[in-house]
Amino acid sequence: MAFTDTASANGANIPLLGLGTWDIRGDVCRRIVEQALRLGYRHVDTAQAYENEREVGEGIRNSGIPRDHLFVTTKVWYTNLAPADVLRSTRESLAKLKLDYVDLLLIHWPNSSVPLDQSIAALCKAKRDGMTKNVGVSNFTTALIDQAVQYSTEPLATNQVEMHPYLDQSKVIAACKANGMSVTAYSPIVRGKAGDDPVLMKIGKSRKKSVAQICLRFLVQQGIIAIPRTSKVERLTENSEIFDFELTPAEMVEIHGLAKPDGRMISPSWAPDWDR
Fold first, then answer.
1. What is the C-alpha separation between 205 and 145, in angstroms, rounded?
2. For a surface tag, which of 53, 185, 249, 255 has the fewest beta carbons within 10 Å of its beta carbon?
3. Do strands 19-20 and 12-15 pair parallel, antiparallel, or not at all (unpaired)?
4. 71-76 and 43-45 as β-strands: parallel, antiparallel, unpaired?
5. Contacts of 214 (CB under 8 A, 6+ apart)
6. 3-class DSSP assignment, residue 233
7. Checking DSSP bridges between strand 135-138 and strand 104-107, what pairing results, if any?
8. What tens digit of pLDDT does each residue of 122-170 get?
9. What is the DSSP code (8-state) at residue 266?
10. How far apart are CA 257 and CA 268, in angstroms?
11. How far separated are the first and last CA of the chain, in Å rounded?
């Protein structure tokens, strides 16, 4: 059974649950992508920087799932944001994936040394040239979202950001909604670090669900796309079993209350000045 719940935004219908592939390579990557698709996943997320596009493509082909049933995302690395580099590196990504197009092409991180209007223009050209069905951004702040929307001649489908119960991203969510964009959450289960949280454990116990399932349900119930990364087949099944229950309004408030000022896990040297 395919997991078909989607978030619709600016013409894109993005499956709410996807497979993240950060830091998964080689045979493990091939197998996990193939198994995920056979289990019912229809959304796979990769990136130039993950150095696994070739294996992701092999996993897709090995699964036997028709291409038009899948939603494949890749991302342009921040050192490739000069216009010619956006187009060149996207062609390279397609060659590695052995796909004619991706469903979503994102700017992975903003790069203040390259004018954003030029990067966005190249992203839009990639869409017009048929390399991608949809375009969007990742790790963009509210100010950068507004600029990107202003510069873009194509609708922006999503902003992919770190999101989980310990990080308040309400400003970014509001900015995306105001511009008709969806939000995609990476590291949605806090890279496994939420397992002993008493609030999440209590809610999970009452629902006979794991902490990871509570974290994922918390997001998809808000219409946020979640792309948990896993290299374990048993986790694929666990992560997918989030559509057969609903958190109460009180439980949602409890989980929102876990957000803290130092909740961000991922902030490399090239990160933008995050919203406070």
1. 38
2. 249
3. unpaired
4. parallel
5. 200, 203, 204, 207, 247, 255
6. helix
7. parallel
8. 999 999 999 999 999 999 999 999 999 999 999 999 999 999 999 999 9
9. -
10. 26
11. 41
Contact 81, 52 (CB under 8 A): no
166 classed as catalytic: no
List the domains of the chain with CATH numbers: 14-189+223-229 (3.20.20.100)
Q: Which residue has the tokens 């993240």?
A: 20
CB of 241 closer than 8 Å to CB of 109 = no
The residues, any chain, with a CB within 8 Å of residue 8's CB and separated by 6 or more, are 14, 182
Out of 41, 50, 78, 186, pick the active-site residue: 50
- What are the DSSP E strand ranges found in the chain? 6-9, 12-15, 19-20, 43-45, 71-76, 104-107, 135-138, 156-162, 182-186, 225-226
Residue appearing with tokens 């696994």:
52
Q: What tokens does 121 get?
A: 């223009």
Indicate the residue type of 117.
Answer: D
Q: Which two tokens stand for residue 105?
A: 């092409």
Name the residue with tokens 């400003």.
171
pTM higher than 0.85: yes
Handedness of CA 14, 63, 102, 83 (dihedral sign): positive
